[in-house]
Amino acid sequence: MRLSYRVGAAALIIFAIVLIKRHLDLIQDDAPVLQSGWNFGSFTGDSSLSGSSPNNAPSDSSKPKSSKPKLTGDSNSNGYANGNQKDDALASRPIYETTPIIVPNDRIIVMAKLASEDTNWVASDLNEWRNIIYTVDDESASHHTPKNKGRESLAYLQYIVDHYHDLPSTIIFLHSHKDGWPGAWHTDTMAYSNVDSVRALQTDFVQRNGYANLRCQQTPGCPEEIRPFRDPPQPGKTTERVYAQAWVELFNNTDVPEVVAVACCSQFAVSKEQVLQRPLEDYQRYYDWVLNNRLSDDLTAHVMEYSWHIIFGQEAVYCPDAYQCYQDVYGNPYFW
Ligand SMILES: *[C@@H]1O[C@H](CO)[C@@H](O)[C@H](O)[C@H]1NC(C)=O
After folding, report:
1. Percent of the chain that is helix, strand, coil (3-state, to 5)
2. Domain that holds residue 28
3. Where do Low complexity bias regions lie (predicted)?
4. How many whole angstroms from 248 Cα to the centroid of ligand 1?
């Protein structure tokens, strides 16, 4: 007897669970239909509203009024039965599964290369990133700059100017050398590897901070690489002697900082949001400056090297503690 009670109770519970599950499934299945119906309805309303600004409240309320009767008028002219058919069609519409839209490869590596350099490693070793590689000294290359000027900087700006309106979330500006010394000496991993550093890059930090220098070692560049007003001028410090004038031309203001500092070498990542903090015209101005100024290739590149962090929203002196930098940028304070 007791056993049969237990079996009975268990059967009842299972039956109840099955019922509840079916009920929940039904609710879920209904949801998309209801939602799409609602979207359909609100779409017409939204489209008529979006054209006018919130200030025109009176005309707003009149617009939907004038458009709605039109719609019902149409269906009236088609007859009442037609309207019912429409409802039936909505109700019997097949139920589609909905999937959130995930943009694949929403991140890119932008690179400058000489025609003689082999950059196949980018696609093969960093294949989770899209890439666009500009050849700076071959105008027949599929991606190229009009001139070999300012080393990597013209390519970086070419990308922003050409893709300002379709940027991915994260953009890395990277050099063409894969690893090894001396070619990649300034890359912050044991093997000086751009592959290792990109693989470890904390893209969420890039999103949070807007800008991440891929180098955390503070020299060269920190703590005060450029003093535009150093008096007397220091031999060898040619970049800082042209920096103030370049600043005025680049940024169209005279607020030249006393000190500019950032860990060297023009490899960094930025977020789309950060790039869009400036209008396209700003990037076009930088581009024209790199292309057309009368400074040498080297000096142009150096000025840009000590301007990128400012362009992308950082203070003129950007020298975070190296351990903190490794933690933020690579997820490990002892990354190097
Ligand atoms: C430069 O700044 C001045 C004054 O702030 C402004 O009138 C002018 O339009 C700017 N020029 C460019 C090219 O942005």
Report:
1. 50, 10, 40
2. 2-91
3. 47-61
4. 11
Within a domain: residue 98?
no
CB-neighbour burial class of residue 81 (10 A; exposed 0-12, middle 13-18, buried 19+): exposed
Q: Same domain for 53 and 174?
A: no
Q: How far apart are CA 336 and CA 86, in angstroms?
A: 66
Residues 6+ apart with CB under 8 A from 301: 150, 151, 152, 153, 266
CA 135 → CA 99, 143, 166, 253, distances in Å?
39, 6, 21, 32
Q: Phi and psi of 259, rounded to 5°?
A: -135, 135
Q: Is 102 inside any structural domain? A: no
Measured in angstroms, how far is the CA atom of residue 64 from the centroid of ligand 1? Answer: 43
The pTM is what? 0.70
The Å distance, Cα 45 to ligand 1 centre, comes to: 42
Q: Which positions ≥6 away from 290 have C-beta within 8 Å?
A: 149, 150, 153, 154, 157, 300, 304
Cα-to-centroid distance, 164 and ligand 1 (Å): 21
Mark whether 41 and 119 lie in a shared domain: no
Expressed in angstroms and rounded, the spacing between residue 252 Cα and the centre of ligand 1 is 6
Ligand 1 centroid distance, CA of 241 (Å): 24
pLDDT by position in tens, the chain (length 336) = 566 778 778 878 887 777 777 776 665 554 444 444 344 433 433 433 333 334 443 344 433 434 334 444 344 444 344 445 555 555 677 788 887 766 667 999 999 999 999 999 999 999 999 999 999 999 999 999 999 999 999 999 999 999 999 999 999 999 999 877 777 767 777 667 999 999 999 999 999 999 999 999 998 999 999 999 999 999 989 999 999 999 999 999 999 999 999 999 999 999 999 999 999 999 999 999 999 999 999 999 999 999 999 999 999 999 999 999 999 999 999 887
